[in-house]
Amino acid sequence: GIEPDQREIVFQPFSSTKKRDDGTGIGLSLSMAKSVMKKHGGTITLASQPQAGTNLSLYFPVVRQ
């Protein structure tokens, strides 16, 4: 899970709690996902419990013809 004080930054590019030598962090992937969702009119939400896990939900708009 993600600690409450870190949930606001996980969607920022290159955010990480690790040393810079360990890669770009999950923030790069999540910031790209958030950008793609926004461009398609969707949203991405995060629900997390420390020491238990994290769920990310993607909501895509439905187009009815």
What's a quick, concise take on this entry?
This protein is an alpha+beta fold. 22% of the residues lie in helices and 22% in strands.
| Overall radius of gyration | 14 Å
Number of strands: 2
Summarize the biggest pleated sheet.
Answer: 2 strands, antiparallel
Report mean pLDDT, rounded to a whole number: 83
* Low-pLDDT ranges: none
Query: What percentage of amino acids are in beta strands?
Result: 15-25%
How far the N terminus sits from the C terminus, by CA atoms, comes to 40 Å
Topology order in helix (H) and strand (E) letters = HEE
The helical percent reads 10-25%
Number of helices: 1
Computed structural class:
alpha+beta
Instruction: Going across the biggest sheet, name each strand in turn.
Output: 1-2
| Overall morphology | flat
